[in-house]
Design a protein that fits this description.
Length: 76
């Protein structure tokens, strides 16, 4: 005869919840993966913007230096 103990109840409930929560866990895994992908893409775009801005600043500085040596006043 099996005894009704706290351990027996916990084992029974764990099995029930695991099966019921499995579809939710699958959705959460997919959701988390999608969020990580979006975050990575945003981070990459932010880094690209920083690199582009730095390149533009260098080109702008170079253009002003050339303009100064040629006696041309550049306006932005």
């Amino acid at each position: 005869m099996s005894e009704v103990t706290l351990e027996a109840i916990e084992e029974l409930l764990d099995g029930m919840f695991d099966k019921k929560l499995e579809p939710i866990q699958k959705v959460l895994v997919a959701h988390t993966a999608a969020l990580e992908k979006l975050l990575t893409e945003k981070k990459n775009k932010d880094e690209e913007k920083i690199v582009s801005a730095e390149r533009f600043d260098r080109l702008e500085h170079w253009a002003f230096q050339v303009g100064k040596k040629l006696g041309i006043k550049l306006e932005l």
